């Protein structure tokens, strides 16, 4: 009988942590669920056309960086995140994506235009439910 935890972990993978970092004098590594979370962050932070051999890779969120901080932009971000994760991260099932605008009256000048992309997903091989919050910044920082 094959140990399912070994099989599941092999599917989720192990690798070098990104961004590169040192941990106790050696190159930082991550594995399993943290490898999946890192992959999601990479997908969201990669611009379409940025990777030479995979010009279609990425969520393309950078195209929305100068849009007004409003509901339409939040819906576009939500749609692009859903599509990118469905296409580029087969190890997960996306349970939900929400984009929350910061309360403009309660934030400092440096936080204006910040949107929080909240992703809830299930890792298929382990059935574990995970959440990830990815900050995205609208450069205008104004509502339209």
Description of the structure:
This protein is α+β, with helices and mostly antiparallel strands. It has one domain (4-137): Roll (Nuclear Transport Factor 2, Chain: A), CATH 3.10.450. The chain has helices at 4-12, 33-45, 71-88, and strands spanning 14-16, 22-23, 26-27, 29-31, 92-101, 114-123, 128-137. The strands form three sheets. A three-stranded antiparallel sheet has the order 5-6-7, with helices on one face. Strands 1-4 form a two-stranded antiparallel ribbon. A two-stranded antiparallel ribbon has the order 2-3. Strand 6 and strand 7 form a beta hairpin.
Structural topology:
Blueprint: H1 4-12, E1 14-16, E2 22-23, E3 26-27, E4 29-31, H2 33-45, H3 71-88, E5 92-101, E6 114-123, E7 128-137
Antiparallel strand pairs: 1-4, 2-3, 5-6, 6-7
Q: Sketch the major β-sheet.
A: 3 strands, antiparallel
**Overall pLDDT:** 80
The coarse silhouette is globular
Total helical segments: 3
Sequence stretches where pLDDT stays below 50 over 5 or more residues? 1-6
Distance from first to last alpha carbon: 60 Å
Give the C-level CATH assignment: Alpha Beta
Provide the CATH topology. Answer: Nuclear Transport Factor 2, Chain: A
CATH-defined architecture:
Roll
Oligomer: single chain
The helix/strand order is HEEEEHHEEE
Structural class computed from helices and strand pairing: alpha+beta
The fraction of residues assigned to DSSP E strands is 25-35%
């Amino acid at each position: 009988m094959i140990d399912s935890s070994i099989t599941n972990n092999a599917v989720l993978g192990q690798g070098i942590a990104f961004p590169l970092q040192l941990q106790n004098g050696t190159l930082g590594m991550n594995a399993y669920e943290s490898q999946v979370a890192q992959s999601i962050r990479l997908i969201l932070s990669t611009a379409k056309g940025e990777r030479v051999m995979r010009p279609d890779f990425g969520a393309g969120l950078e195209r929305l960086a100068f849009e007004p901080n409003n509901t339409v932009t939040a819906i576009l971000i939500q749609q692009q995140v859903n599509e990118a994760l469905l296409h580029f991260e087969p190890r997960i099932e996306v349970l939900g994506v929400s984009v929350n605008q910061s309360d403009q009256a309660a934030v400092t000048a440096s936080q204006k235009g910040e949107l929080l992309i909240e992703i809830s997903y299930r890792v298929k091989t382990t059935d574990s439910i995970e959440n990830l919050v990815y900050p995205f910044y609208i450069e205008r920082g104004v509502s339209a």
